[in-house]
Structures are given as structure tokens and as C-alpha cells.
Amino acid sequence: MDVSVIAFGAAEIGYENADQSVVDRLLNGALDQGVNVVDTGECYGESETKIGIALSTRRSEYFLFTKAGHASGLEGEDWTGDLIRKSVDRSLHRLKTSYVDLLQLHSCSAAILERGDVIRAVQDARDTGKARFIGYSGDGNDAVSAIRMGVFDTLQTSVNVADQQAITVSIPLATQSGMGVLAKRSLANAVWKHSVRPENPYYHEYWERLKKIDYLFLRTDRLADSLATALRFTLSVPGVAAAIVGSKSEERFRENLGMVPPSVLPRDQYEVIRNIWNERASTTWVGQV
To answer: Torsion angle, CA of 167/198/192/281, rounded to 10 degrees?
Structure first.
């Protein structure tokens, strides 16, 4: 797959219950501007359904990625082969398509992978034409285990200015194995735009990390400049094919697209961020699932 460097991440439109008319304009606008990847998941609320409504008539124009593993309303336990098969069929129905381009296991543990039934389930989806490729979405040692199994085509993992474990732990191993790499949380949730610690606990880890690291480029009053540097840093990581960026705001997503050219940081700027991370980051700062 020849993917665009920015992929549309569709979690936010589901979790925040974006209006269908907004999703229609947002996704069609993204495709019109050259984005050719939409990444969603089985547990992102109504995300898959809204994508199906918005883009079913343009299915040949983009690569569609989804995930499986959580029941999310289906009968059965998370992380069983039977559950994943049901989940895939539900996703295809919601997305109004007969196949997805990439089916990913949704951040399960190494122990679950080693059991084997979940891998067989996604392989069955590929072998029966419901998925073209299969991948693993996850971080840390679990991601390393997934890579070493040699069965996945792609790795989706957290990598950004506040989350760099993958740069040394999993991404080099994935690229050596011939896997495509997708960066999730590519903007570190832009937590520095908040003047005080956000109430939502989801943002606390990155907030605390960036307070400790204190990158100079984040001190600017120009949020667009700091966001551009952060996104370009992620795209500069060797091996990263695309950065997943999500929004339910048409204006904000257009701004994100406008940050990309040139898509990577000059090497010296990239190395400054990496060196500061290596000097100030705690060894307990692992990839955030």
C-alpha cells in the first residue's frame, strides 16, 4: 500500500459522537486533500458506522483500516477467536464494505498472542478476503513479541515527542522484519495547549512527561508552530510510514494537513529533541497503549 503520510484517525469522531453531517464533510474533505488512509476500531463508538455512511461510495479511493479484539456490545468475552470473527463481520457491516485493507489486533498482551486463537482469527479473515493485510496495534514488550512472531504485516504504535520508547525498542525491529509502521498518538494529544493540567486522566501521563522534559519549542505562544514541530518529529522517526491524526473539527484537520510539507524535521532539530529525551526521560516511561 502506498499510504499518505497523514492517516485520518477516526477514534475521536466516535468517542465524541460527532454529528454525521460533520463526519461527511470531514472525511470527504480529507480524501479530497490527498489523505488515503482512514483508521478506526471496533470499540470507537459509532465511528465505523459513520465512516460507512460517509465514504461507502468512495471505497476505491482510500485504504480502510480497523481493529478487533474487544466485544464492544457483542456477546462473548474479549480476546477470543470466535469473538474476533464476529467483530470482523460486524465491522464490515458497519463500514458498508466487503473487506478492509488492514485488520489489526487491538493492543492485546503477548500472553494472548501466544495462545494463538486470535492470530488464527485474523489470518482467517485475510485468507477469506475480508482483510488484505493483518497487523498488530500496541506498545512495549507486547509489540516486540508480536513482531517476533513473524505473522503481521504492520505495527501501529505510540510515538511522539512525549513517547519515544518505540524508537529504540520496537520500530527498528519492525522495519527489519519488513513491517509497515503507523504512528498513533502522533501529536502527543497536544497536551501542552492546556494551561493547567487537564481534568481527563487520559492526558495526565503526557502532561507530566512534557512538564519534566520542558522542550524549548513548546514554550512558544504560537500553538500552530509547536504542533507542526511535534508532528514533523513523529514523521521523522526512521521507519514511520504514516502518522495517524484524528479530529472532529474540519478546520483543525485542515491545519494538521497544512503542517506537513516539508514532512520531516531537519536532522539537527530531530536530534535535539531525541537528545533532550535521552537526557531527561525516566526509564519508567513506557509506550502508552
So the answer is: -40
Instruction: Name residue 68's beta-bridge partners.
Output: 105
Q: How far apart are CA 140 and CA 207, in angstroms?
A: 20
Q: Mind listing the pLDDT tens digit for each residue in 31-52?
A: 999 999 999 999 999 999 999 9
Specify the number of domains making up the chain.
1
State the average pLDDT for the chain: 96
Q: Which residues contact 250 (CB under 8 A, 6 or more apart)?
A: 22, 25, 26, 29
Q: Is 215 contained in some domain?
A: yes
Q: Can you give the pTM of this predicted structure? A: 0.96
Instruction: Give the tens place of pLDDT for each residue, 115-151.
Output: 999 999 999 999 999 999 999 999 999 999 999 999 9
Q: Which of 164, 223, 225, 167 is nearest to 191 (CA)?
A: 223
Place of cell 490527498: 34
Domain of residue 191, CATH code: 3.20.20.100
